[in-house]
UniProtKB/TrEMBL annotation:
Biased composition (Low complexity): 1-21
A Pfam family hit: Rcd1
Residue segments, region Disordered: 1-23
One of the GO biological process terms: mRNA catabolic process
Matching SUPFAM superfamilies: ARM repeat (SSF48371)
An example Gene Ontology CC term for this record: CCR4-NOT complex
Xref: InterPro entries: ARM-like (IPR011989), ARM-type_fold (IPR016024), CNOT9 (IPR007216)
Family: Belongs to the CNOT9 family.
Protein name, entry field: CCR4-NOT transcription complex subunit 9
Membrane-spanning parts: none
Length: 310
């Protein structure tokens, strides 16, 4: 029964105060764990706890970025396993530990207040050796996937400056490598990154500027389509079709797709996958309309005709 003197209101106030106190305790705990990262003896536990609970801590990314020595400690964790990348001797424990460090970097890459500082410091370059590996063992696959997660966090926000940086540092060949040999999940994230790059005009122009770049991307997309015919994945197919659709926005690329678009996208091979995904089905219909419609006149300077793959 509520008191005539405002018991209900007092209860609400007490709950709000309790929630704020709990939030403050969590943030104090997070701040202490971040400080522990600078201590080699405490770092492993701090990495584990922070990576498991990073969503619970508000403004963790700015604190990680601005606290003394923290980013240096995370980079130290990353470079410490370079020697075991080739020949491949990465253990599960080493992979887990560096992936916990990468999870914190993903947090920094995702936050609006730290994203550009993260990029301007060229920190993504420290992850590229992980994307250049070819071992299919679980420790390496986990490492590639987590590294792709950091890059994926950067491209989720449409920003031409981010795209330009990634293109200038040759991210496309690294994504293509994963799209060829990674697990379904890592292929999906890598294809998503290529899709986001293509959706930016700078990215589309970059890939369609030369026939070599266009066909490098087209070859890998085609290989994945053939693989999906045997091992279907609606999620991966969605990103592949979106990449093709965006390529068809470029006149020369669209002309080239008339010869190199996989037949399996033109027939009913993926009918079952598309039946329950109206968005992807609509994208495919638009792609086929673009490619099979009236032939697009080539711009001055020629197109890809001399290199078309029949």
């Amino acid at each position: 029964m509520n008191s005539p003197f405002g018991g209900a209101s007092s209860s609400s106030s007490a709950n709000a105060i309790g929630a704020q106190a709990n939030k403050d305790r969590k943030m104090q705990s997070a701040e202490q764990l971040v400080l522990d990262l600078s201590n080699p003896d405490l770092r492993e536990n701090a990495l584990l706890e922070l990576s498991k609970n990073k969503e619970l801590f508000q403004d963790l990314a700015p604190f990680v970025w601005t606290s003394f020595g923290t980013i240096a400690a995370l980079i130290q964790e990353i470079v410490s396993i370079y020697p075991v990348l080739s020949p491949p001797n990465l253990t599960p424990a080493q992979s887990n530990r560096v992936c916990n460090a990468l999870a914190l970097l993903q947090c920094v890459a995702s936050h609006q207040d730290t994203r550009m500082s993260f990029l301007n410091a060229h920190i993504p370059l420290y992850l590229y050796p992980f994307l250049n590996t070819t071992s299919k063992s679980r420790p390496f696959e986990y490492l590639r996937l987590t590294s792709l997660g950091v890059i994926g966090a950067l491209v989720k926000v449409d920003d031409t400056e981010v795209i330009s940086f990634l293109l200038s540092t040759e991210i496309i060949p690294l994504c293509l490598r994963t799209m060829e040999m990674g697990s379904e999940l890592s292929k999906t994230v890598a294809t998503f990154i290529v899709q986001k790059i293509l959706l930016d005009d700078v990215g589309l122009d970059y890939i369609c500027t030369t026939a070599e770049r266009f066909f490098a991307v087209g070859r890998v997309l085609g290989t994945m389509v053939a693989t999906l015919a045997e091992q279907p994945s609606s999620r991966l197919l969605k990103h592949i079709i979106r990449c093709y659709l965006r390529l068809s926005d470029n006149p020369r690329a669209c002309d080239a797709l008339r010869s190199c678009l996989p037949d399996m996208l033109r027939d009913a091979t993926f009918g079952s996958c598309l039946r329950e995904d109206p968005t992807t089905r609509r994208w495919l219909q638009q792609l086929l309309h673009n490619v099979q419609g009236p032939r697009v006149a080539l711009q001055a300077g020629g197109g890809f005709d001399h290199m078309l793959v029949n």
